[in-house]
Write a structure and sequence with these properties.
23% strand; Phosphoribosyl-aminoimidazole Synthetase, Chain A, domain 2; 60s Ribosomal Protein L30, Chain: A; 355 residues; alpha+beta; 7-stranded mixed β-sheet
């Protein structure tokens, strides 16, 4: 239970409705009951429970942990809102935590903005909020402020979530898409494409059934272990929309180098590969929500691999390629048949509303 602090308002609202209606966004008692019961009841911390229009964080708390402030924001519109391995709430927290972590930041605080369609089941909303709380606890972050809006039926699709994240970065870490150098190696922390495949299964509109779980997971602790073992990481990014192929194209163009991947080294589940063959998709472009692409000096590769494998979210980590000086701005896949093909930047969207 959160200890009380001077000025904290005692929570008393109880939400009795079974579905969300327009009054829950109207600023009156119904909205207060929603906020106090569903959100503060789940997230419960001193900063949020003050019910101010902003969270107030001591600067000393931030400067004790790092030298620079990291700030990110993202919005989540995944369809469907529940899928094998997670839901839109877990996705929102993990996605924002990971966006901070891949820059070398220690994530600390999140915001939560919800746009809720009239008619959403309160039971479903409670599940989503509980997932956010569980994911935040797993990552060691707090959700400290937020906003709720309700829109008419048909004006949204059940619920959309925006989260912003705040963290701090040590001066020791200079991670950037511009830092890849010839001789570097590329690592991934496990099987790719699981999230995209899970969403295909959850939608059920392609007559394809699978039991693949989304890889939705917070990566900050894995990344902190990696950076402790190998502080000289050059590039790092989570491979969400556009997948590993798009991330490496961004690195190649930003750094003016070539990435050469080995298809036989890239971890892909048999079920994911089979689904891609049926639908004409490429696993390299499928979305992930728990995979980080890491580029670092070859001399650090084995230490980095050991650090990643020591974390539960990195046991299947692998070295999947290397960086060369030419042809610049290019990603090349050495196929399992012994040939080569160019992995272009993704054009369009293989699967819309994936996150």
């Amino acid at each position: 239970m959160t200890a009380s602090v001077p000025g904290m308002r005692k929570r008393s609202g109880v939400l009795r409705a079974e579905t969300i209606n327009m009054s829950h966004g109207g600023g009156g008692k119904a909205m207060r009951d929603l906020i106090e019961d569903v959100f503060i009841g789940a997230f419960d911390n001193n900063e949020l429970s003050m019910l101010e229009d902003q969270a107030r964080i001591e600067l000393s708390t931030l400067t004790a942990l790092g030298d620079r402030l990291a700030l990110t924001t993202d919005s989540y519109v995944v369809d469907p809102i529940f899928f094998n391995g997670g839901d839109i709430g877990k996705l929102a927290v993990c996605g924002t935590v990971n966006d901070l972590a891949v820059g070398g930041a220690v994530p600390l605080y999140l915001t939560c903005g919800m746009i809720i369609e009239e008619g959403l089941s309160v039971a479903d909303l409670r599940i989503i909020v509980a997932s956010m709380k569980a994911a935040a606890d797993a990552a060691g972050v707090k959700i400290v402020t937020g906003d709720t809006k309700v829109v008419d039926r048909g004006a949204a699709d059940k619920v959309f979530i925006n989260t912003a994240g705040v963290g701090v970065i040590s001066k020791a870490h200079k991670i950037s898409a511009h830092n890849a150098k010839p001789g570097d190696v590329v690592l991934i922390n496990g099987y790719i494409g699981d999230h995209g495949a899970a969403i295909v299964g959850a939608r059920g509109d392609l007559a394809i059934e699978n039991d693949i779980q989304s890889d939705c997971q917070p990566l900050n602790k894995l990344i902190q272990s990696l950076l402790q073992a190998c502080p000289n990481v050059h590039c790092m990014r989570d491979a969400t929309r556009g997948g590993v192929g798009s991330v490496l194209n961004e690195f190649a163009v930003s750094s003016g180098v070539c990435f050469k991947l080995r298809e036989t080294s890239i971890p892909v589940r048999t079920e994911v590969r089979g689904m891609c063959e049926i639908l004409g998709l490429d696993p390299l472009y499928l979305a992930n929500e728990g995979k980080v692409v890491v580029v670092l000096p070859k001399a650090d590769a084995e230490a980095a691999l050991a650090a990643m494998k020591s974390n539960q979210y990195g046991v299947n980590s692998a070295i999947i390629g290397e960086v060369t000086d030419a042809p610049t701005d290019t990603v090349i896949l050495q196929t399992s048949f012994g040939g080569e093909r160019i992995v272009d930047m993704l054009v369009g969207d293989q699967l819309p509303r994936i996150c």
